[in-house]
Amino acid sequence: RVLPGFSRFSFTAGAPHLGPLSFTMSYHSTAGVVRCDGPGAPFASRTVASPEDFMKLISDIMLERAVDSNAPFDFAGGLVGYLGYEARHDAQTADPEVPDAYYLFADRFLAFDHLLQKVYTCSIDPPGAPRWSASPEARAAATQTST
Q1: Which residue of 61, 67, 70, 143 sits 20 to 30 Å from the alpha carbon of 110, by its own alpha carbon?
Q2: What is the pTM of this model?
């Protein structure tokens, strides 16, 4: 059931369809360590002084990688993931092995239009690179996912 303004679109991203700009980012608040891994990682490891500095880092990354889109939905790729309650310095009860925040920079994703029953292949591509969203791989991913 589609609720107007709330449930028209769903999005999915992940292996094996991640592209050259994708990366994962984890944050452990107790040590202030941010780690990135993947072909598009802006850095390998960095220390931030506070959760506020981590949020500023996320904002900076999104501003640097912002793209214009003419899609019928607002999401144009970027960081998706979670920010746990333990990301606050005064809530140090988390399992130290589990990051307080974990994000994926989704540079390739599928969007499902539940109203029109349509699948969109979407990508953020490096300058000069062919559009992944128009490739046979993207069409195959959309076909496999919609069946």
Answers
A1: 61
A2: 0.84
